[in-house]
Design goal:
alpha+beta; elongated; FAS1-like dehydratase domain-containing protein; HotDog_dom_sf; FAS1-like_DH_region
Length: 182
């Protein structure tokens, strides 16, 4: 492979902004929102909000029935992980086809660390909602020098919708793709 210039790399990164992360958009949740999974989540995290667990309370609340914790949005649409071949997929636990960020790995930015995640919630998911998720690259920073090394902050946004297209919320997820300095 020929050496990629910084300008070539920047051009390839800029072309990703606004594009879907994978061609299989939107991703359909394998199951509708359901009380059993809400209960597992609530108990695992010791979040005993009665709107998640108590049918009578929830029915008489502003929600009108059991709702899902809003930060559970991502878990509803997660594909079952495939661990075999995870290294070859750059640490990604699902089949992604061609990795759109392979150009960073090819340029030596092989370190990956998650830096933060932010949620915007429009409404709580309700039992029975069939959720879809659509993920696009939102931004890719200029090259930055960090304590981990030199790299790029890559941010994508996932929009979660109901079967009727109503937006439930958005999640921004940021990673640093870096190479060790020195």
């Amino acid at each position: 492979m020929t050496e990629m210039t910084k300008d070539d790399l920047r051009q390839r990164l800029d072309a990703l902004v606004g594009q879907p992360i994978s061609s299989g958009q939107p991703v359909q949740a394998p199951d509708p929102v359901n009380a059993a999974m809400i209960r597992h989540w609530a108990y695992a995290l010791s979040d005993f909000n009665p709107a998640y667990l108590d049918e009578e309370f929830a029915t008489n609340s502003r929600y009108g029935g059991i709702v899902s914790p809003p930060v559970m949005l991502q878990s509803w649409t997660m594909a079952p992980p495939k661990l075999e071949g995870i290294h070859e997929r750059g640490g990604v636990p699902i089949e992604i086809g061609e990795n759109p960020l392979q150009c960073l790995a090819d340029a030596g930015y092989t370190g990956i660390v998650a830096t933060n995640s932010e949620f915007e919630i429009e409404r709580y998911p309700r039992v029975g909602d069939d959720i879809t998720a659509e993920t696009v690259f939102e931004s890719i920073s200029d090259e930055k020098k960090t304590g981990m090394g030199t790299g790029f902050f890559v941010t994508w946004v996932t929009t979660y919708r109901t079967q009727g297209g109503e937006v439930l919320g958005r999640q921004r997820f940021r990673t640093l793709r870096f190479k060790k300095d020195g």
